[in-house]
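Entry for the shared binder. Reason: the reviewer on the internal report wants the predicted structure included alongside the sequence.
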Amino acid sequence: MFAQEHVPGREGAFDFTDATELGVTIAGEVFAHLFFQFVLSFSKWRWIGLAYTETFEALVRGLQGALWELGGVPSTWRSDNLSAATHQIPGGGREVNRRFAGVLDHRIDYRHVIWSLVRKPGRFARYVYREEMFPSVVFRRA
């Protein structure tokens, strides 16, 4: 066996799960839906969101919701070969598609915003949406 060492905050995993089998009905009709789930490997902190299809837009919406609530971005992301994030390459195998590579290249790191507020707390005093600037409840209380 190989021991796995999960470092706090380093790794997050995400995937879609078909939730239709739960048998949720609306007005007597089965509600066909998916759950998007993001989990931190060390703490098992998780964020779950509703999705209707496994599309690129649903993937990005799920990641944005999870990372916003988390208040940070793990350095390593894990998933299976989601069709929304990868494509098949000639000769076999899969690789990250151009659209998802763009997401990976432009992940938002909110630490620079938080640090600027720590150094100059009045900087955003008149900013209309100042409460929305903070990525999580923990930072809003700080």
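Summary line for the report: The first strand starts at residue 11 and ends at 18.
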